[in-house]
Amino acid sequence: MISPDKRAWVRAAACRDTDPEDWFPLQGERNVPRWLRDLCGGCPVRRDCLEEALDHHDTGIWGGLNPQQRNRLRRGRTRYGYCIHCGALYQQPKKTRATCSEECRRARHAELKRARREQARQQDEDL
Question: Strand (E) positions, 18-118?
Fold first, then answer.
């Protein structure tokens, strides 16, 4: 049961129109189907969903993680983070990164470089 104060995020969830049974695989199934991971990957409320699951749920796929992944996260053995470029949930290596892949790292670097050039141009125009 989802706590009443958290119900607002459910209406914005990418999975709101899917079959609930898809999110509760048969016992023993550990792999999250790709289409579910992809749906979670683009969900605007994935963090809220994962927080809800960590606090209240031991079964099913929540926030893109299965119960075993959430248990590892609870115990602190596995670190997960959200990519600052694409927003994907990814398993962080020991060395902390802010992006999930080399592609996102390059894209983020290019965005920051463009933003710095734009800021410098604005400052030149103000003079």
Answer: 80-82, 89-91
* Pair of tokens at residue 49: 């969903």
Please tell me the least confidently modeled range out of 53-57, 62-66, 89-93: 89-93
Place of tokens 């398993």: 91
Cα–Cα distance measured from residue 81 to residue 101, given in angstroms and rounded to the nearest whole number = 12
> Structure pTM?
0.55
Q: Residues near 98 by Cβ (< 8 Å), separated by ≥ 6?
A: 81, 83, 84, 108
Please tell me the distance from the alpha carbon of residue 83 to that of residue 89, in angstroms, as a whole number: 6
Q: Which two tokens mark 66?
A: 């299965």
- In the block, tokens 């104060």 appear at 5
Determine contact, residues 108/85, Cβ cutoff 8 Å: yes
Q: Which domain holds residue 114?
A: 4-126
Domain count, the chain: 1
The conformation of residue 97, written as its DSSP 8-state character, comes to: -
Distances (CA, A) of 72 to 68, 77, 98: 6, 5, 20
